Amino acid sequence: MSRRVGVGLSVALIERFRDRLPVTERTPIVSLGEGSTPLLRAPRLGERLGLDLWLKWEASNPTASYKDRGMTVAVSKALEDGATAVVCASTGNTSASAAAYAARAGLRAIVLVAESAARGKLIQARALGAHVLAVRGSFDEALTAAKKLGERGDHVLVNSLNPNRVEGQKTAVFEIVEELGAPPDAFVLPYGGGGNTTAYAKALSELELATPVYSIEAADRRTTLASAIQIEQPAHRDRVGASGARVHAVPDEEIVSAWLELARDEGLFCEPSSAAGLAFLRGSDELRGARVVVTITGNGLKDPGAADSHAPAPVAVDPDPDAIARATA
Questions:
Q1: SS3 89
Q2: Could you tell me if residue 38 is inside a domain?
Q3: Are both 182 and 201 inside the same structural domain?
């Protein structure tokens, strides 16, 4: 019987999809209760956009992003292989996930972050006991350094270049198809490094489905305010191209507008990068009338600086009912 690290009453993602993942009875399952995230209909936005619109709310994963799906598999396999440490480069979400699952497994975590990483994500990794190192350079430079460290054999790289990460992340597609009872007409998701697009394409291939995947990147990858997709050189660019994914770019002002609209009209507060897919749909009639699933990759609390800069500021008011009524009229 396999060891199960951190598994309580909830069904671990690896247990749920064991027959579709590269695990054996010898694999120690390192879980925080990831996966099985809500698939929510978006009636107001859908009506406005002329779509049957659904949102895969990945922010409800343990560290509040989709990265946990792949990290449970990557860290479980690292532990099975006798690793004592994991390493990653990150714009933020990978750092929090790697730190959490390494802590759960009793492994050291080395996290290399770009100087532009969002503060909320770094707080997570720091609090979880990772060795967080701010690289004087870009994410791409941090990833190069992490890969070289991983090649030495004493650390396991847990970025999405680790194939076990992609294996875990593909399970989102299995959940969506299962819950809808059929595949949607299209999947729409943000495009940073391309690992999630690669994972979705892999799942669709395994299910023998030809559902199109729309991967939405920032118009300026180098300077976008959407820090999670601020990756100038996507590690999976070739695989994204080979997958047939339809890549579109959206400007930051459209990302911000879609981000605020999602929060105001559907009650979902996500990090800005998560709204890239909605920004594309708002500016295109290509999928009008279709059933579309947009993946919302991370919680808005990951990037409090963005919310502070773009959400409406509080209004000062006297503690008087009439004053409150006038201020909100």
A1: strand
A2: yes
A3: yes
pLDDT tens digit sequence for 234-247: 999 999 999 999 99
Give the domain CATH number at 86: 3.40.50.1100
Give long-range contacts, CB 8 A cutoff, 24+ apart: 274-278: 274/59, 274/190, 274/228, 274/298, 275/226, 276/190, 276/191, 276/216, 276/217, 276/218, 276/226, 276/229, 276/250, 277/188, 277/189, 277/190, 277/214, 277/216, 278/45, 278/188
153-168 residue pLDDT tens: 889 999 999 999 999 9
pLDDT in tens, 13-36: 999 999 999 999 999 999 999 999
Tell me the β-bridge partners of 295: 56
Q: Does one domain contain both 98 and 217?
A: no
Q: Note the pLDDT of residue 1.
A: 38
288 & 197 share domain: yes
- 10 Å Cβ neighbour count for 261? 17
